[in-house]
Amino acid sequence: MRDKVYIYANKRRVLFPARLLSEEGKLLEFGQASISAEQDSVDFVGDFVPLFKMGTPLTIVRTFGEQEIHIFRGEVYLSSRKLLRLTSVSDELLPGSERVYLFPVNFPAQVTAFPPAEPPRRALLPWKRSAPPGPQEFLVSLNFVAMDALEFTSPVELPPQSTLCLTMEKPVEGYQLPLAVKRVLQFGSSGRTYSCLIEKWPLQVLENWEKHLTELHQKENKLF
Fold this sequence. Notes:
Shape: elongated
Oligomer: single chain
Strand content: over 45%
Structural class: mainly beta
Number of strands: 13
C-alpha cells in the first residue's frame, strides 16, 4: 500500500521547509519559515541568513519535498544572521498545491464494512451450517479530506481486515468510495480515528471533488 504524506491545513505556527529568494527570483538560502497572519509577517530562519536593509523586497517559498507550494512576498522588517522577518506580506498558492493537504471538515458519513472472505467449512450437520457474516454499517464523522485520502472517527471499532466503503452526505453524496485503512490514529471517548486511502474515485464525481478541494484550499491556506 502506498504511504503518501500530507500536510494538515491551517497549521500555521509550525516551522516548514522554505527557500529565501531575492525579488528577482535568485536563491539566497535554504531554511525554515513560519507564518503569523495576525501580525502580517513571515519569519525565515537558517544557519547563514544574509543581512538586508529594512524595506528590502524578498520572497519566501514554502516547499514540500521538491515541490514549491506557497509563495510569500514582503519587505524586510527584521534581519539578523539567524532570523529574517518579512512584513506587508502577500501570498500565492501555486497550482497543484491543493493535492498535498488534508483539509478539516466536520460532517457525517456512512461506512460499510464487508468482512473478509473465509474458506468454507465442512459442517458435520449440513442443515446447521452457519451463514457467513454480512456487511455492517456505521455512521462516522469525517474529520479531514484530501484528494485521495481521508480521516474519520468511528464510535465503534471496525472489524479488522474488512473491506470498507464510505458514502458521504456532501459534497459528492450517493457514491460509495472504496477505502484502504492506513492506520488507526487514536483512541478516545468518541471512538477510533482511522486514516484511509481512497482507492478509486468514480469519474462522475471526480471533477466536483477536485473543485471542492480547491475551494477548501483557498479558504484554509490563502492567508494574506
